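dumping this here before i forget
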Amino acid sequence: MPTITADDGTQLQYEQHGPHDNVPRNADVVLLAGFRAPGTSWRYQVPALLAAGHRVTVVDLRGHGASDPSPTGTTMATRASDLDAVLRHLHLRDVVLVGGSMGASTVWAFVQQFGEERVRAIVSVDQTPRMLNGEGWEHGFYGYSDANRDTFFAETIPSTGVGTPMWRRPARVLRMLRAMQGVSRELGPGDLGVLNDHAKADWRPVIAGFSKPVLFVAGAESEYWPSEHAAASAALAPQGTSATVQRAGHATNLEQPKAVNAGLLDFIARLPR
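structure:
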């Protein structure tokens, strides 16, 4: 896989599929996976996007896939800078940024730091813009509040006991396992640092200031937060829409790829030229 060197020397891997420069295409789509997930977690979306005439760039930021690990001190701002480095290196403009879980938050961190000039539209797949519950927002991570904000994600992502048990969704789990092969469960200091930074972030003001189309997708059976976060987030955005995918947990694009692909392709097809 080709690599890009981030501003601090970290090596980032990516794959690009579809028409090369100066070849007509419908849209440039950039896919960003969730916390520590590899780019292969988009394996069911890439063929559908290519068949629709789009160019697809799948990015492994630091801590993902075969890219360099996340060093101590990694924050969401670091991830935003990584994304900026990728877009600059590949000369990508007018892009549709699609992020799953923390990948979606990375997109908002990018918009906050670098603006929306290079962005055509955004798709957020099962990521609430504020994980902390309270202050008029009850669409955060189950059980996470001001009372435990400094300890809740200290060692791992806590189990919530919410959602459909894995034994009742074998086909969906199998798709996830195939896409996540080789991902270690051990979290290093850099992983825990960015996880905690992510958990305390609030992207609602960024969403409210984003002027271009954005689609918020929720898994109806998400293990992490109520699916109502998608509609609540869309209500914040000037051009926001939302969709809830039935029989899908947090890994929505892996659990129900046909539904996610249909919604994603329809959203891109409706974008202004």
